[in-house]
Write a structure and sequence with these properties.
The protein has five helices and 29 strands. With about 425 residues, the chain is of the alpha+beta class. The C terminus is likely disordered. Keywords: Membrane, Transmembrane, Transmembrane helix. This is Arylsulfotransferase family protein.
Length: about 425
């Protein structure tokens, strides 16, 4: 039996109403994070990730670890190590962390280069010894610290472990957990690093946890809740009846923590020895916190954008690696936390292009040079105070790609107890 005109109009109006309601709900759910917006977003991100990196996940090509050597597309086939000004070079060793360059898609390494640019040692970092579940090619070695006995400790982005290994890569200790980004030594036998959104202190000899400071549980509610607004920029309120706030996915993205050592504390009258300097990328926030109370002694949002790697300095200032994401030019900024005075220390130039939209590290050297890790172009460079290149190193994978460099570090010539590490030293000591 044919439907009447009124039935057809009713059915058409019903479909239009359902479509309109679905459209409105889609907009509102996306805005407020209601079901199914988070699930759709996760599915979309997963699809893009798998479609881009399936070769990596099958162990065929480490696409998660490869980057273009520069922004211009003009790739030199003979790139590698280039010394431009040996007289200006800071003597010592350079450590560089990342994926192995020997065409093994699953082995992470820490390289050790001498002042001539020659590799004198490499630590094999066998991730599957610490976590048998996550494929090694799917994690990124990120945090790194080196010890006088020739051992190193490492963390892994998207991984499930922090571990210390000897000169041959044999495990000394490992701890499972979502440890990531930077590691810094305190000088008194401990390490600070991140586990999730918590700053944790570990015993460097055993990996045992000795302290923990949580952003959400310890810092946000501290000082009678007056610090909430500093951190809750990236939150959502699910409904008016819910007095609490729900954090978005990865609302902080913590990426660095460093303790103020006693020998440097006098330069920072605003702070106390043992205070923690930390960086939250998504908030453009650099801050110093009292780890005992969770109260911020100092904090600032920007002008850095998606920053990395703030460092204390003996003159009472803090330098910050400003990724300046989206600007095509990264910066090293210096700020006096007491006066607010700020300067740009290095910004690259046409002759010295310098940009990494994420990651990136910097280290001021004793002679005033700066060691720069251009992570997203797989390049390390040492520059003089006036900005001229002293040397560069590209971590070459093939003719068109470099390997991401997660950290480079300078150490003095007399750093190691027994000279540059090797496996023979480990065998002799056992």
């Amino acid at each position: 039996m044919k439907k009447s005109l009124s039935d057809r109009l009713f059915f058409g109006g019903f479909l239009i109403s359902i479509t309109f309601i679905a459209m409105v709900y889609g907009i509102v759910s996306s805005w407020w994070g209601w079901f199914p917006a988070p699930q759709i977003g996760l599915a979309h991100r997963t699809y893009l990730d798998v479609s881009t990196n399936w070769k990596n996940d099958l162990g065929l090509e480490p696409t998660r670890h490869l980057v273009p050597p520069n922004d211009t597309g003009d790739v030199s086939p003979d790139r590698g190590y280039a010394l431009s000004d040996g007289a200006q070079q800071q003597p010592g060793y350079i450590l560089i962390a990342g994926l192995s360059d020997d065409q093994d898609t699953s082995e992470h390494v820490v390289h050790l280069f001498d002042a001539s640019g020659a590799e004198v040692h490499r630590w094999p970092i066998k991730y599957d010894n610490f976590d048998p579940v996550t494929p090694p090619q799917n994690v990124m070695l990120h945090g790194m610290e080196v010890f006088e006995d020739g051992s190193v400790v490492t963390t892994f982005d998207t991984g499930q472990a922090i571990a210390r290994v000897d000169a041959c890569g044999e495990t000394m200790w490992s701890v499972n957990g979502i440890f990531h980004h930077s590691i810094t030594r305190t000088g008194d036998g401990a390490l600070w690093t991140w586990e999730g959104d918590d700053m944790v202190r570990l015993d460097e000899d055993t990996g045992e946890q000795t302290a923990r400071v949580s952003i959400v549980r310890d810092i946000v509610p501290a000082n009678d809740g007056e610090q909430r607004a500093i951190f809750e920029i990236r939150t959502i309120e699910p409904n008016e009846a819910d007095e609490g706030l729900t954090y978005l996915y990865d609302p902080f993205h913590p990426n660095d923590v460093e303790m103020l050592r006693p020998e440097m504390a006098d330069a920072f009258p605003m702070f106390e020895a043992g205070d923690l300097l930390f960086s939250l990328r998504e908030l453009n926030l650099v801050a110093v916190v009292d780890p005992q109370t969770g109260i911020l002694r100092w904090w600032q949002h920007g002008p850095w954008l998606k920053q990395h790697d703030p460092d204390f300095h003996a003159d009472g200032t803090i330098t910050v690696f400003d990724n300046a994401t989206g600007s095509d030019r990264s910066l090293i900024r210096r700020i006096d936390p007491q006066t607010g005075e700020m300067s740009v220390e290095f910004s690259g130039s046409e002759d010295v292009p310098f940009y990494t939209w994420r990651r990136g590290k910097h280290q001021y050297l004793p002679n005033g040079n700066i060691l720069l890790t251009n992570a997203e172009h797989g390049r390390v460079l040492e520059v003089g105070p006036e900005g001229r290149i002293v040397w560069t190193r590209d971590m070459v994978w093939d003719d068109t790609s470099n390997l991401i460099i997660t950290e480079a570090r300078h150490i003095p010539e007399d750093f190691f107890d027994r000279g540059p590490p090797n496996c023979l030293d480990v065998s002799d000591a056992q």
